[in-house]
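User: ROK family protein. Structure?
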Amino acid sequence: MSKPVIAIDMGGTRIKIGIVKDSTILASSSISADSGNGLKNKLPYIEKAVRDLLNQQELSCEDIAGLGIASPGIIDSHEKKVLSIDKKFGDAPGIDLQKWCRQAFNLPFTIENDARAALLGEWKYGKAKNYDNAVLMSLGTGVGSAAVMEGKLLRGKHFTAGILGGHFVINYKGEICNCGNKGCVETEASTWKLTSIAKDNNSFLDSKMASLSSIDYEAVFKWAEEGDSVAEEIRDQSLQAWSACAINLIHAYDPEILVLTGGIMASSSHIIPYIRQKIEQHAWTPWGKVNIEEAAFPGSAALYGMSYLVNTDQK
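Assistant: Predicted structure:
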């Protein structure tokens, strides 16, 4: 019988903290990420949130198998550190998180890329459970991805395999991305680039979105439904970009299933049919159709994935 795990998902907007036992979240909470100001300042707040959850469940650290963090960026899961990260929690590569975990809780420590953790959660407990070959695409602040091939989570020699789907080039004449590349999926369609995309539209000042202090995809899909031409253009460009990314992932990793997740999937009723149609039209899969599914755990898959990883690490 496995012990509960402390699982932490380092989102760009919210940091989610859960006590997870196998496929059950016993308790969870979240705190503001304030990720632009780094991770070091947040560690005391994370520690407090963890202790509050332990107290709430009447658990001590002796009852816990370990602590796992799902983090954005390129993660060395062997040395248990963040190698490289893009803007969010920019100081993380300089922090010894394993030491922090030992000092704060005296627990074994595990860390993995957040998209890989989310795919693990879906693969072990969710929509990808019955497949040996699965790909996840996460649509949120950026565009994340991860792959399971032939029953193994893909990591690669330098820990970048499978996770850079958001940095596939889909417009070689496009703008420079945060990563330094040109015309990445993220520069064409992601939340961090959305306001810039909108303001570059020649008709932006005539759009209802011009009155918004910040633009998100909820607003884009809402105003597009109501006939706002700028919102329609952005929606259609984004759907095309995500479809191109999905097709590239399918061509790269040959999955049986593509799981879609992330905050933008609140508009899944528009997104999934569109991507499914484009994949059926344009993906080269002579063996048949890839299953396109919305995640079973859109907000918590990474917590489940880290629970699984921590328990695996302890065996």
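The longest helix spans residues 229-253. The radius of gyration is 20 Å.
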